[in-house]
Specification:
The protein is an alpha/beta fold and 218 residues long. Helices cover 29% and strands 27% of the residues. The structure holds S-adenosyl-L-homocysteine.
């Protein structure tokens, strides 16, 4: 049995199936992604006191005023990204590591950056326990993103800057895609596709994320 499925009772299995059905009804059509979201144990990425709510379609706190995104949003962002079939993906905002785990199942290599060390430590431990070997984690201690490892075929950002960050867009490979929430208060989930030195920018839908911040918390 794959490690992810160990220790899951029938209740959890049924609540997961219900969540997946709900995502499907909300318009998520990528069945490969849905199958992976059914398998990856979201409850592992939460504190024990909240793990019974892991399969609700809702954002949940992970400490340090940060949140694990709502499953629908994780699915939507991943679906948009995967339309371009990226091989190497940069994630900004490791947080709990849940989105990182979903990406690790779908793409060749995931590079994920986080600015809060205690969150990164916990995420690293969970990803190790679940056996992902194609995930590289880094603390956000110099500049935005992960310039040394770029360019990336895909960039997924799970915290919102006020404006599109040019330095991050430059870490996209030609033809690469970035999915990013932009703005203050109400934000717009935005798709950016690099075409040489130009960028095609498309609105996806309004969202609410925690702000993208500078500096590191140790
Ligand atoms: N993908 C995460 C979402 C966590 S919330 C999950 O599934 O749990 C967003 C995360 O982005 C927070 O952990 C926050 O600390 C982090 N973050 C904010 N600004 C950042 C930056 N400039 N670089 C890296 N991470 C950042």
């Amino acid at each position: 049995m794959v490690p992810e499925l160990q220790g899951i009772g029938m209740t959890s299995r049924r609540t997961r199936a219900r969540l997946i059905q709900r995502l499907r009804e909300s318009g998520i059509g990528d069945e490969r992604l849905l199958a992976i979201m059914e398998e990856v144990p979201r409850h592992i990425f939460l504190d024990e006191a909240l793990s019974h709510r892991a399969y609700e379609d809702t954002a949940l706190p992970i400490g340090h005023s940060q949140t694990l995104s709502q499953p629908y949003i994780v699915a939507r962002m991943t679906e948009v990204l995967m339309r371009h079939n990226p091989g190497r993906v940069l994630e900004l905002g490791t947080g709990s590591g849940y989105q990182t785990a979903i990406l690790a199942r779908l793409v060749k290599d995931v590079y994920s950056v986080e600015r809060i060390k205690p969150l990164q430590d916990r995420a690293r431990e969970r990803l190790r326990t679940l056996g992902y070997r194609n995930v590289m984690l880094r603390l956000a201690d110099r500049g935005i993103g992960w310039q040394e490892q770029g360019p990336f075929d895909g960039i997924l950002v799970t915290a919102a800057p006020k404006e599109l960050p040019r330095d991050l867009m430059m870490q996209l490979a030609d033809g690469g895609v970035m999915v990013i929430p932009v703005g203050e208060g109400t934000q717009m989930l935005t798709q950016v596709i690099r075409r040489g030195e130009d960028f095609d920018i498309t609105d996806i839908e309004p969202v609410r994320f925690v702000p993208l911040l500078g500096g590191v918390v140790r």
